[in-house]
Design goal:
The complex is a heterodimer of chains A (about 110) and B (about 180). Chain A is α+β, with helices and mostly antiparallel strands and about 110 residues long. Chain A has one domain: Glutaredoxin, CATH 3.40.30. Chain A contains 3 helices and 6 strands; from the N terminus they run E-H-E-H-E-E-E-E-H. Chain B has about 180 residues and is of the alpha+beta class. Chain B has one domain (about 30-175): 3-Layer(aba) Sandwich (Glutaredoxin), CATH 3.40.30. In chain B, strands 2-1-5-4-3-7-8 form a 7-stranded mixed β-sheet, with helices on one face. Chain B has a two-stranded antiparallel sheet with strand order 6-9. The longest helix of chain B has 17 residues, at about 45-60. The two termini of chain B are about 15 Å apart. The chains are: A alpha+beta (about 110), B alpha+beta (about 180). The interface of A and B includes residues 10, 78 and 89 of A.
Chain lengths: ~110, ~180
């Protein structure tokens, strides 16, 4: 499994986000390394289809699919949690579900 | 950027609001306290705290507290923070405070704001009494242990100094024009 963690340093959530990803991997028993990518320019954001920090890709796929009209830019990313609240990080459950789905794919 | 110091006077401004009217500090000269919050549309920290901002304004309106919420982000790079989008957000959320557009970013610079949301609480003399975050838990309102803004307002309204006058603002950086 190829796991990437993309972040923008000015957004304060990235360290907590990376720890949440590590926790989810441990809970799922996945030992794959995390490729951590620091996004520093608008051009890099566009090239990486980075809509905000943090973004987690599993085998190249965003754990929360982005909309067609999403902006690629240096900012914090908004996640909609299971209970409808907005948050700067995906929940542990969202990450674990994405990991389970990736593992289930042939 | 250095934020306005505790004890400093509010920097005057006149900004257009989503009601297409100009808003200034002088419009609220009769208020016992003014809360100026630098904010925006797109930031997840703002969205996490937004309902609490509305609830706080509702709770304190009858006690002479007025919130003025200011967006200074560069709409050229962040179109979801432009003025039409601000109007849309205010209508969707039913904002009970003026939502103002600092198009030149001069007011954000005058206050030394760097984050969204970032709170400045002024007393009746428009002296800064609190600067920082709304509370200590953006993620979960039920897990808040320190209600910084509420505690500061209670102190200001009772004529005392807030026990905590400064906390680090937690949120997105203000998106400056290049």
């Amino acid at each position: 499994m190829h796991i990437q963690f993309l972040y923008f340093e000015e957004c304060p959530s990235h360290e907590a986000g990376l720890q949440r990803l590590r926790d989810a991997l441990a809970q799922e028993g996945i030992s794959a390394p995390i490729e951590v990518i620091k996004v520093e320019t608008d051009e890099q954001a566009a090239a990486l289809r980075f809509t905000g920090s943090p973004t987690i890709l599993i085998n190249g796929a965003d754990i929360v699919p982005i909309s067609q009209d999403a902006y690629f830019r240096l900012t914090c990313r908004t996640y909609r949690l299971e209970d409808g609240r907005f948050a700067p990080l995906p929940s542990n459950e969202m990450i674990r579900t994405a990991l389970q789905n990736a593992r289930a794919k042939p | 950027m250095i934020p306005l110091a505790i004890g400093a006077n509010a920097a005057p401004f006149s900004l257009i609001g989503v009601d297409d009217q100009m808003h200034s500090l002088a419009d609220h000269a009769d208020k016992a306290a003014l809360v100026i919050i630098f904010s925006c549309n797109h930031c997840p920290y703002v969205r996490a705290w937004e309902d609490r901002m509305i609830a706080l304004q509702a709770d304190y309106a009858t006690r002479g507290v007025q919130f003025l919420v200011v967006s200074a982000n560069d709409p050229a790079k962040y179109p979801d923070d432009d003025f039409p989008a601000m109007k849309q957000r205010a209508a969707e959320k039913g904002f009970n405070f003026p939502y103002l557009f600092d198009e030149t970013q001069a007011i954000a610079r005058a206050y030394g704001a760097t984050r969204t949301p970032e709170v400045f609480v002024f007393d009746a003399n428009r002296t800064l009494r609190y600067h920082g975050a709304i509370d200590d838990n953006h993620e979960n309102p039920t897990s808040v242990t320190r209600h910084y803004l509420r505690e500061a307002l209670d102190a200001v309204l009772s004529g005392t100094q807030p026990a905590i006058t400064q906390t680090p603002p937690v949120g997105c950086t203000i998106k400056w024009r290049s």
